[in-house]
Sequence to fold (295 residues):
Amino acid sequence: MTARIISGLEIAAEIRSELKKRVARLQAAGKTPFLGVVLVGDDPGSLSYVKSKEKGAIEIGITENTIRLPGDTPESKVIEIVEELNRNPQVDGILVQTPLPGHIDTEKVLYYISPEKDVDGFHPVNLGKLLRGQPCFLPCTPHGIQQMLVRCGYDPAGKHVVICGRSNLVGKPLAAILLQKAKGANATVTVVHTGTSHIANFTRQADILVAAMGSPLCITADMVKEGAVVIDVGVNRVEDKSRERGYRLVGDVDFDAVKEKAAAITPVPGGVGPMTVTMLLQNTIESAERRTGIL
Ligand code: GUN
Fold:
């Protein structure tokens, strides 16, 4: 079997055209959605993520402003800026790009973001609501993965989803989303991690396998069940002297081998990445709709 390639770019484009209509409706009501981004330091991954968020926002008519701060900015200054964004009535969504420099307590900063403007869905209030099955901003990467599955006809309901990785960014919130008794969820979820013995015993049982552990090409064909749907969240830079920039991006899945066994698989790049940005834009629009009383 050669797998169907699930294009995150195509699904993201489909959702973005739906979002443009929602922006037009807001603009007709006198409101342009506004996303405030805080970027501290010059981590290359963060710079590239923020660039794609800026580009995506502009394309669909969201106003975006990135506040760029030097890497040695004190924690108190970052919190002050977050509080200004909380108070600014023009701002619908706030995002503090992570990772933050080591001298800043990330959990503390995220706690200061108003839950009503927390379009990343990282605030403990939103995560608590997610666990309890209440409406809230969903974290963007896990929400994007759910949308990819549903829109491609791989509804997780009744399926065994095995998630490799227990990060706060992906693994834990994705498990919380997919185990809800709700549309596009209702799955049996297993999370494996660095403390799991014999990971392959679990991954081989997966109808849907999500690789989100940040280890290049770690999921090999022998770890995948014939006909599984494989979602690769990994974005790893590996040295490649044949490329002008000296590296190439690879996922957590050994794509070339696994695609011969899976029913469907996401590529890297062009898979989960564009979905993350799209769900961030969707959350920002949803916030603007709520704040103007349209939703
Ligand atoms: N760093 C990597 N991904 C993300 C994300 O989705 N949001 C934020 N704030 N930081 C990130």
